[in-house]
Design brief:
Layout (H helix, E strand, L loop, with lengths): L1 H16 L5 H97 L6 H6 L4 H128 L21 E3 L2 E4 L6 E4 L2 E4 L5 E3 L4 E8 L5 E8 L2 E8 L1 E2 L6 E2 L4 E4 L10 E8 L2 E3 L6
Antiparallel strand pairs: 1-4, 2-3, 4-12, 5-11, 6-7, 6-10, 7-8, 8-12, 9-11, 12-13
The structure holds zinc ion (ZN).
Length: about 400
């Protein structure tokens, strides 16, 4: 950008001083810059495409991770709920166990009490019951009765112990289950946290890639804007170059004509449709157009042009811009030049000592086309000048 501002500034300076700096160089520079810009656009576009692809891939990965995370979350919730249920069961079983223990304890105390009564205070208690039997049969009955009570207590204690063992087993089982569930839940929690980390990482990447994309897009838009500016500059420079070329051509034509008018003291004729073809002797005529007696044969003849004063070697110039259609010896005309000016007009220059142009060549008004001489039918050096319309000679006077 900076570089171009300097270029423009220089162009303005050159323009201001009227320096006809080479437009072609400027145009070449602009075109080079344009080419570089386009290469850069290609590179940035590639980077943008790559970034966009990476972003798409990252988005796909995030979607996959999200699905996985959903599964893990569901499983984690299920395990957490199951664990809560298991905890409730464990609490209930533990309470049951406490109750069973308490019952067994009570039963144990009851049994111990009876045994104590029987053996320590037995003399009064069970022994008395036995001794107070009415007869042996009664004694056996009483003995049986005591044994039954003892058995009953004993059985009850065994039952309570079995129940306690059962509930204890259940508590151990539930606790084991709880521990397994806790392990699973903690595994899922770890997985969940790992996935959360991965998702966060990918989201960071996507955010970074989005920023890169925006930056590349900005670069592209800047470069394209740059290109449009350069293209406009190229168009402007090309237009200016064409204008300068046209101006230079016009100036060179004018300079050719002006150089004769300034160096020619006799010059008093501004030129009409055509420039006087002998700038050094403008207005000096040896012979006029029309019927005359021939200077060579002395017989009457028609003179088809003006004989202009032109000493040997004098410059003969083109009367106007045009194309040389003839430049060679031609019968009585001697070394002759004919120029086609378009619009049906042509001019002829005869008797030249030498020719400076060739057929097919473009000439500008005032350009030297020949050197004066006396070739062909001529009594001395001069310029025989003809004006022709559609090939037929006319009086040149009204056109000079
Ligand atoms: Zn003549």
């Amino acid at each position: 950008m900076k570089k171009r501002i300097i270029t423009i500034a220089l162009a303005v300076v050159f323009a201001a001083f009227g320096v006809s700096t080479s437009f072609a160089d400027n145009i070449a520079d602009y075109k080079q810059e344009l080419k570089q810009n386009q290469q850069q656009i290609g590179q940035v576009q590639q980077q943008l495409d790559k970034t966009t692809n990476q972003k798409a891939t990252a988005k796909e990965e995030v979607e996959k991770l999200d699905k996985e995370l959903n599964k893990v979350n569901t499983e984690y919730e299920r395990l957490t709920k199951e664990l809560a249920d298991t905890n409730a069961q464990l609490e209930a079983a533990t309470k049951e166990l406490e109750e069973a223990k308490a019952k067994r304890e009570v039963q144990y105390e009851t049994l111990k009490e009876r045994i104590k009564v029987m053996y320590e205070e037995g003399d009064i208690g069970y022994l008395e019951v036995l001794l107070n039997a009415n007869d042996f049969s009664d004694y056996l009955n009483r003995m049986e009765y005591i044994n039954r009570i003892m058995d009953y207590d004993n059985n009850l204690l065994a039952d309570f112990q079995a129940l306690e063992q059962l509930i204890n087993d259940k508590v151990v089982e539930i606790d084991k289950c709880k521990q397994q569930l806790e392990t699973l839940a903690s595994e899922q929690a770890a997985k969940k946290s790992e996935l959360d980390g991965k998702v966060a990482e990918k989201l960071d990447l996507i955010s970074k890639l989005s920023k890169d994309e925006a930056s590349y897009n900005q670069q592209l838009s800047d470069l394209e804007e740059d290109n449009a500016q350069i293209e406009a500059l190229i168009q402007k420079a090309e237009k200016e170059a064409a204008a300068a070329k046209a101006a230079a051509q016009a100036a060179s034509a004018n300079a050719a004509a002006a150089s004769y008018s300034s160096s020619n003291k006799i010059y008093s004729y501004g030129g009409g449709r055509f420039l006087w073809p002998v700038p050094a002797y403008v207005g000096s005529i040896n012979d006029v157009y029309g019927y005359r007696s021939s200077p060579i044969s002395g017989k009457g003849e028609f003179h088809s042009g003006l004989d202009m004063k032109a000493p040997y070697g004098t410059d003969i110039v083109a009367a106007d811009n045009g194309t040389v259609i003839y430049a060679a010896p031609r019968n009585g005309y001697g070394n002759c030049v004919i120029i086609d000016h378009g619009g049906g007009f042509s001019t002829l220059y005869g008797h030249n000592s030498s020719l400076c142009v060739t057929a097919g060549q473009s000439v500008v008004r005032g350009q030297v086309i020949a050197k004066a001489g006396a070739t062909g039918y001529a009594t001395g050096p001069h310029c025989h000048f003809e004006v022709r319309i559609d090939g037929k000679y006319v009086n040149p006077n009204p056109y000079l």
